[in-house]
Amino acid sequence: MTDTRTTVVVITHNRCPELLHTLDRLAELPERPPAIVTDNASTDGTADAVARLHPRVRLLRPGRNLGAVGRNLAVRHVRTPYVAFCDDDSWWGPGSLSAAADLLDRHPAVGTVTARIMVEPDGTEDPIVRELRDSPVPRPDWLPGPALGSFLAAATVLRTDAFRAAGGFHPRLWLGGEEELLAADLAANGWWLTYADHLTIHHRPSRVRDATLRRAHGIRNTLWFTWLRRPAGPALRRTLHLARTVPRDAASLRAFAEATAALPWVLRERRVLPPEVEARLRSLEPAQRDSTARSYTG
Q: Which structural domain, as residue segments, surrounds residue 236?
């Protein structure tokens, strides 16, 4: 069952064993999707191992760690109508890429479709799945699943042209909640984001991660997105909520300091979302306040 509609894009940095496992699983998929890997300046032999063991994978070596912008670089080389992202410690389930492409074929106003995430090796649902499935965002009757306000890059298939038109991931955000800004801009461009329970991606969390640094980036990026796109009232509410609820330590303080230091850039680039998109984000505020899956920890 070869399916030529979707290219898989993976970014990686110093996770050679995890990446090779992911590429092994992708190579076993019945769709046989083309894959592009951006190696973000790994020093553990990742690039050489991929070139040797997976010669069919297109390997990009930018020479420095681009973070999420490594996906932008890869998408420049995509020639299929759809692009599926996954992390170097996650992989798509058999048939899910074809099913996602079918859904996007049938619904031309859908820009992204996010899959059910199974945490391995236990095969349990990621806690975020329940929030995706029960999303309170108002949806049109024709939408095939719950409407979302954002997406998870490690578990989402997107329209390639929509991604490019929205500008991809912003280089300032690097990594950590980098999807929220792009998701809002996709919605502002008229695209709907949805969740599909019949699609599956598997995630075996890597032990090679700096959870504290990722938390600091996540807080900073949430503040930047909020100040860049939300009206003054909702932006103030979310800022105050973060200030009250994030861990009170040096990492959180650094995140707020970095965000505040960039206010001149934020004000130059600030572009408030259309009212209909802002209404979707407002509908998510109670769920965001009560969420445990979305809390900043580490």
A: 211-290
Q: Are 196 and 246 in the same domain? A: no
Is the Cα dihedral 100, 69, 283, 132 positive or negative? positive
* 23 lies in some domain: yes
Residues 224 and 114 in one domain: no
| Predicted confidence (pLDDT) per residue in 68-107, tens digit | 999 999 999 999 999 999 999 999 999 999 999 999 999 9
Average of per-residue pLDDT values in the chain: 95
pTM of the full structure: 0.95
Average pLDDT of span 198-206:
96
- Domain total for the chain? 2
Question: pLDDT for 122-146, tens place per residue?
Answer: 999 999 999 999 999 999 999 999 9
Q: Residue 54 is encoded by which pair of tokens?
A: 């997976």
* Domain closes at, from 176, 203, 230: 203
